[in-house]
Amino acid sequence: MDTSPWAFPDSLHVEDRDDVAILTLSRTHKRNALDDETILGIGRFFADLPSSAKAVILAAEGDHFCAGLDLGELSERDAVEGVHHSRMWHEALGKVQSAPVPVIAVLKGAVVGGGLELATAAHLRVAEDSAFFALPEGQRGLFVGGGASVRVSRLIGVQRMTDMMLTGRVLSATEGTTLGLADYQVAAEEGLDKALELAGRIAGNSPVTNFAVLQALPRIAEADPETGYVLESLMAAVAQSSTEAKQRMADFLSGRAAKVAAAPSDQEPRR
Questions:
Q1: Is 37 a catalytic site residue?
Q2: pLDDT tens digit string along 69-124?
Q3: How far is CA 195 from the centre of its chain?
């Protein structure tokens, strides 16, 4: 993978840990607010993932995940220019969502505006207790432009997103996790470790299954029921016909693979 300064700006750091790639936002002086260079860099990263990566962790330096769009980047744009700018964000964050491997975002501090749009493009989200979620565009005379209308509303519903945008309501880590903006909540400084644990589990899955979950499941969920059932049948047939699936089933039936067990009781309060 090309990690030269030309390919990735100073606001992004790339690290490989075995079969997990870690992309870290590094604009702590701006609470990791996103400028155009950073957004384009994120798009380039996900467009050219190393073949060795079986999962990606999206992390951030400092106390905050991302405070949104860098308002210092705002310039006078006519309507057409504004559409193209929004579509640039859509294209870059679309590459996150359509990544060939699962993406886990580690959230802390501000997860605001464009930062929430970036977070919800990931497939899983781990929120530290310090995380808080907001869509302040309404108080700034703006409207979301990086995909929140689609991704955030699908996670928490249009009514809750309406409340956040009209009133400036800020959700705590617990509220956000309960509503679905995060999948796991952990204590301060534990987010990356949790993400690495999850990435390790994911990397151990069959690549065919991971592909089906990332690429087929969202499309099945959006299809009408009868179409969804057909797509599910086709994907199930493809997955179970793979050599790896057959070996894994043989291991399970012979007792060589672990069975599903209940989660430890001390883990139940946190997701």
A1: no
A2: 987 777 677 889 889 999 999 999 999 999 999 999 999 999 999 999 999 999 99
A3: 11
Is the model's pLDDT at 1 over the cut of 60?
A: no
71 and 163 fall within a common domain:
yes
Same domain membership, residue 222 and residue 181: no
Is 128 tagged catalytic? no
Domain residues for the domain of 190 are 12-203
Given the residues 137, 222, 232, 268, the one annotated as active site: 137
Confidence of residue 251 (pLDDT cuts 50, 70, 90): low
Alpha helices in the chain (DSSP H): 36-47, 79-97, 114-121, 148-156, 158-167, 173-179, 191-203, 207-211, 217-222, 225-240, 243-253
Q: Which of 143, 186, 185 is nearest to 164 (CA)?
A: 143
Catalytic residue among 117, 128, 175, 222, which? 117
Whether residues 199 and 211 fall in one domain: no
